[in-house]
Amino acid sequence: MTGRALLHRLGQMLFVLWVVTTLLFFLFRLMPGSPLAAYIDTSMTPEQQAILMHQFGLDRPLHEQYVLYLVNLLHGSLGYSFIYKEPVGSLLLAALPNTLLLTLSSLLIAYAFGILAGAFLAARRGTWIEAVSLPFVLASRALPEFWLGMVLLAIFSFAFGWFPAGGATSPGASFPNAWARFTSVDFLHHLVLPALTLAIFLQGLPLLLMRSNMLEVMQEEFVVMSRIKGLSEWTIIIRHAARNALLPVATALALGIGSSIGGNVVVESVFSWPGLGRRLVEAVSASDYPLAQGAFLMIATAQVVMNCVADLVYATLDPRVGQR
Amino acid sequence: MSDVVVIGSLGRQARDPWFMTGVSIYLAFLAVALFADVIAPNQPKDILFLADGRLANALKPSLAFPLGTTTSGCDIFSQLVHGARSALMVGTSAAVVVVSVGTLIGLFAGYFGGWLDAVLMRLADIVLGLPLLPSVIVLAAFLGPNTWNVVLAISVLLWPNSARIIRAQVMSLRERAYIEAARAAGSSHLSILFRHIAPSILPLALLFGSIAVGWAILTEASVSFLGFADPDTTTWGFMLQDAYVSQALSRGLFNWFVPPGICIVLLVSAGFFISRGYEQLLFPRLRDQGRG
Predict the structure, then answer these.
(1) CB distance from B97 to chain A under 8 Å?
(2) Is the ipTM here above 0.85?
(3) Can you list the domains of chain B with their CATH numbers?
(4) Considering only CB atoms, which chain A residues are within 8 Å of B133?
(5) Do A138 and B276 lie within an 8 Å CB cutoff?
(6) Residue A315 in contact with residue A321, Cβ under 8 Å?
(7) What distance in Å separates the CA atoms of residue B222 and residue B237, rounded to the nearest whole number?
């Protein structure tokens, strides 16, 4: 990819981010009811309410509020949560690592399994193994993630008692620092079921992609050539075909990181996982606009940035794209 | 001419087991949805009592209640049957909107190109940057908890996927000889678009339709599960939310929360099975490889 093309793509990313930010601002300002409804106590006098409106800048004209919002955003300030009465930024930063760890660990499992199983199924094309497993793979893409989570919870947590029923750590558990928390047995024990739920849902895409790419690559001349040279079938599959079939899977992974951060919303809710998605749902139900806005913006930014990364990965790995 | 192609391809699809499985599942659910009032022994949200006057809550499956009852005394089987109706309504209406909007935008952007294409595709980029489920939640909360608002929100977010694919297809069709011939013969742009190009992209649009039905049903179920749906309609997502908050998981009431999930999986996979059948129609190379 040339420097010009790179700049163009980055410019496009910033443009999309700005539009999303603006849409979000006006959407939340246009919501029915006072944005302070959740915050204002019925016992407050009109004067007290007016002071609050002033504190939050809600008594100014809409365009001034918008400029203020953008300026604050550029300074990294996302406002104060109505229900927690804490800065939105610090609430979200506390939730972000939980979401990232859940997303990345489930994607790791899903892609490692999907790539291997996809290559294996391509090699077994036309056999009974393919006939039996493909309907299951397609059905796994049709699973509602939250329902899968409910079934796993009912079996492995409530019936067998092997895993905790929710949360990221046991109640009352304390850790000297974040690193100790995320590497503790307790945290990992809580991570298993939600990560497994997401991984089962996510493995279908890399599996199907890998399988169809392998089938395509196996028809190409260099593979036919290796076969004529007398190389063993597995050598051809692993050394030659798989490497070429991986490119679209890598692009899908980059896109997957972005979209599953937002898609985690339901799984986080089922497992009471303290991540960004759960914060968003909580905030929208409680009309906590600053928190909802901040959580949404963080999730959307992750997706827009990862869309851009996916394009760059594709351009870097496939030289044909860059030359156009 | 193009009608013959589509009908001929449907005849060929009829021999494909994937396609037939998908269509059979759709037809079965359609029958259940149409005759829901006859099939369901009770109203989905009626609180039922036993002959001795006790509340019929959390009953195990029996002849009277084939799937048992909920903890508040509703008949699970009746809820499931009525859920099929809302799932099909949400799925098909969202798919129809997504595919028509996507096809129209794809047709115009691909055929006319230039600034129109640039504007429409930048718009598509913006929508594709929005996270699907969080956006639907925020929109549904903004528009109010109503099933049609959820359908609208889903449609607003899903059209760019189909528009992009259809645009690419139209751009390649635009240069074909028969289109050039029509243009030379003096056909207007609109006539070329809708007489000559639109019929050839119909299979592609149908493929997207069957996938979009699934996405819409899954998204609606998730939104209902998170509690942002219409409180007056019975959907599978509502049933699952009801079960979840009523502690059905810890009480091991599998008869309550397993059936709605299985219905969702069946209905959504049916769309995937059908589009798999069309995949061979759209990309004939795949089938040739299978033979080789």
Answers:
(1) no
(2) no
(3) 80-285 (1.10.3720.10)
(4) 262-263, 265-266
(5) yes
(6) yes
(7) 6
- Identity (one letter) of the amino acid at B10? L
DSSP A137-199: HHHHTT--HHHHHHHHIIIIIIIS--S-SSSSS-TT---SSHHHHHTSHHHHHHHHHHHHHHH
Q: Which residues contact B215 (CB under 8 A, 6 or more apart)?
A: B94, B154, B158
For every one of its 292 residues, what pLDDT tens digit does chain B have, with 9 covering 90 and above?
344 444 445 556 666 777 888 888 889 988 888 887 777 777 777 776 777 777 767 667 777 777 777 777 677 788 888 888 888 888 889 999 999 999 999 888 888 888 888 888 888 888 888 888 888 888 888 887 788 888 888 888 888 888 888 888 888 787 777 777 877 787 788 888 888 788 888 877 887 888 888 888 888 888 888 888 777 788 888 888 888 888 777 777 888 888 898 999 998 888 888 877 555 444 433 333 333 2
**Chain A partners within 8 Å of B227 (Cβ):** 285
- Residues in B closer than 8 angstroms to A142, CB to CB, are 214, 218, 264-265, 268-269, 271-272
The shortest CB-CB distance from B129 to any of A139, A266, A304 is to A304
Chain A residue closest in CA terms to B213: A142
Quote the minimal CA–CA distance from A27 to chain B in Å.
Answer: 8
**pTM for this entry:** 0.83
Which residue is closest to A145 within chain B, CA to CA?
A: B222
B69 close to B56: Cβ distance less than 8 angstroms: yes
- Would the CB atoms of B269 and A139 count as touching at under 8 Å? yes
Terminal alpha carbon distance of chain A? 9
